[in-house]
Design goal:
Length: about 120
Amino acid sequence: MWPIVQTAHAMAPGGGGSDPASMLSGFLPLILVFAIFWFLVIRPQQKRAKDLRNLVASLKKGDEVYTDSGILGTIQKVAEQSVTLEIAPKVSIRIQRARIAEIVKEGKGSREAEEDTESASS
């Protein structure tokens, strides 16, 4: 009636267990693909995220920065969740700290800037 089904039963392996070495060789390509994916994609992405967290944590007044939207500005004020950027003379915007993409030029720290303004005014 169904000759294909009978053939399939004839080709089925016996009821015995499979060899552990053959199971490992079956999973080896999958493990290799995951390892390559880890070193080429996941690990560099984690490193970039860590570097960006360190950059955002180290922002200070006077730093010249690029935002992730391409705006170039100088930090005027640093708050817990936001920074105020001067993007043109007398034009300031407030953005989230996490939106800072890179520091173009490190400015003087706020304490050093205050000392400079005090010495310049005397």
